[in-house]
Specification:
Structural class: mainly alpha
Order of helices and strands: HHHH
CATH architecture: Up-down Bundle
CATH class: Mainly Alpha
CATH superfamily: DksA, coiled-coil domain
CATH topology: Four Helix Bundle (Hemerythrin (Met), subunit A)
Helix content: 55-70%
Largest sheet: none
Shape: elongated
Radius of gyration: 24 Å
């Protein structure tokens, strides 16, 4: 009886993890694992971003309060003045909403960093890439998934 050779499919290379003692953060093949210092640098940068964004949200809230207070008078305003005030108010509301979303993303990145899931694509589970995260620390998708998302949207 002759044993048949079965074809063995190549298994995908596992995503390398950080060294023991360092946080187990995903990296792409060929990248050096995250060190404790790099993880802490990312954490400190995200915390600083969160504080900066909170200050922007506070300033925007104060600006909006002033715009709302000033919009009540309107006596003597022509249509152009009223339109300008409305556009300015809408612009401030948009900036505040964007800042709140960026703060949410920043806080989520900090949670992922603390949980050890920072660096894993939320869509496919592959590594996002250390260089990408160092350039854009709030990234949640690998380059491939982000490109697919942008093509669809």
């Amino acid at each position: 009886m002759v044993a048949k050779k079965t074809g063995t499919a190549e298994k995908p290379e596992p995503v390398p993890q950080a060294r023991a003692g360092a946080e187990a953060l995903a990296v792409r093949p060929g990248e050096d694992p995250w060190t404790e210092a790099e993880a802490e640098e990312a954490r400190a940068g995200l915390r600083a971003d969160a504080e900066r964004i909170r200050a922007e949200i506070d300033a925007s809230g104060q600006a909006l309060a002033g715009l709302m207070r000033d919009s009540g008078g309107g006596a003597g305003d022509d249509e152009a003045d009223t339109g300008t005030k409305n556009i300015t108010r809408e612009h401030e509301l948009s900036l505040a909403a964007n800042a709140r979303e960026m703060l949410r993303q920043t806080e989520q990145a900090l949670v992922r960093l603390d949980e050890g899931t920072y660096g894993s694509c939320e869509n496919c589970g592959n590594a996002i890439g250390k260089a990408r995260l160092q350039a854009f620390p709030r990234a949640t998708l690998c380059v491939d998934c982000k490109q697919k998302q942008e093509r669809r949207g």
